[in-house]
């Protein structure tokens, strides 16, 4: 599942996948990629020059798993043991930001936010109709740019860490609103013993 999650924002090289899947060995990653390719979940292809590198990409059927990850994310944050400050991959955070936004709180919010994590740019954009776009890459004229590790950004948005832990450019009022836009649901009740 983590491998599919890391491909939900588009194709990745083997080395990128190995880095984002902290602690996975090259052999295990190769086996999982081969298994998912054989099952029709992903394809391996070569990018055209000048890149000319091999990447792995989800098939259309593989991309259909996105709502499963959203539902699983909503379910997992209700765990009494969930810790929003634990390490996140950039992709995990981006999927979380798409999943956890409260449409009621956001109202007609329109925003373009550039997140730079581990030196790589990611985008989160919402139009007034409420459509959200996330992905890798740069935004033209973002309203807000946030630089930090995925865990630092998640700790600010979800766990009340001070905004001073992040490098922020742009609309500071929007930055101050972010924790309220992504409320955490109530924890699940523990069963009585």
Summed up:
This protein has 193 residues and is α+β, with helices and mostly antiparallel strands. It has 9 helices and 7 strands; from the N terminus they run H-H-H-E-E-H-H-H-H-E-E-E-E-H-E-H.
Helical segment tally?
9
First-last Cα distance:
32 Å
Report Rg. 18 Å
Helix content: 25-40%
| Shape assignment | globular
Strand content range? 15-25%
Number of domains: 2
Widest β-sheet, arrangement of strands: 5-4-3-6-7
Structural class: alpha+beta
Largest sheet composition: 5 strands, mixed
> How are helices and strands ordered from N to C?
HHHEEHHHHEEEEHEH
Output the CATH topology of the largest domain: Nonspecific Lipid-transfer Protein, Chain A
Task: Please explain how this structure is put together.
By secondary structure, this protein is α+β, with helices and mostly antiparallel strands. It folds into 2 domains: 63 residues, Winged helix-like DNA-binding domain superfamily/Winged helix DNA-binding domain (Arc Repressor Mutant, subunit A); 103 residues, Nonspecific Lipid-transfer Protein, Chain A, CATH 3.30.1050.10. The strands form 2 sheets. It has a 5-stranded mixed sheet with strand order 5-4-3-6-7, with helices on one face. The mean pLDDT is 92.
Which key terms come to mind for this protein?
2 domains; single chain; 193 residues; 19% strand; Arc Repressor Mutant, subunit A; alpha+beta; Nonspecific Lipid-transfer Protein, Chain A; 5-stranded mixed beta sheet
Would you spell out the secondary-structure blueprint of this structure?
Blueprint: H1 2-7, H2 14-20, H3 26-38, E1 42-46, E2 54-58, H4 60-63, H5 66-76, H6 90-100, H7 103-106, E3 111-117, E4 120-126, E5 132-136, E6 144-147, H8 150-159, E7 167-170, H9 172-181
Parallel strand pairs: 3-6
Antiparallel strand pairs: 1-2, 3-4, 4-5, 6-7
């Amino acid at each position: 599942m983590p491998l599919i999650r890391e491909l939900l924002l588009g194709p990745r090289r083997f080395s990128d996948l190995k880095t984002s899947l902290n602690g996975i060995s090259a052999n295990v990653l190769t086996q999982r990629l081969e298994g998912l390719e054989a099952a029709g979940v992903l394809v391996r292809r070569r990018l055209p020059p000048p890149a000319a590198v091999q990447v792995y990409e989800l098939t259309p059927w593989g991309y259909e798993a996105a709502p499963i990850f959203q539902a699983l994310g909503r379910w997992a944050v209700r765990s009494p043991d969930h810790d929003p400050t634990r390490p996140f991959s950039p992709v995990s955070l981006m999927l979380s930001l798409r999943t956890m936004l409260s449409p009621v709180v956001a109202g007609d919010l329109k925003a373009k936010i550039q997140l730079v994590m581990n030196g790589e740019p990611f985008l989160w954009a919402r139009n007034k109709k409420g459509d959200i776009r996330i992905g890798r890459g740069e935004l033209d004229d973002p309203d807000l740019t946030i630089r930090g590790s995925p865990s630092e950004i998640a700790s600010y948005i979800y766990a009340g860490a001070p905004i001073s832990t992040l490098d922020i450019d742009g609309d500071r009022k929007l930055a101050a609103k972010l924790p309220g836009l992504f409320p955490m649901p109530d924890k699940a009740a523990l069963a009585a013993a």
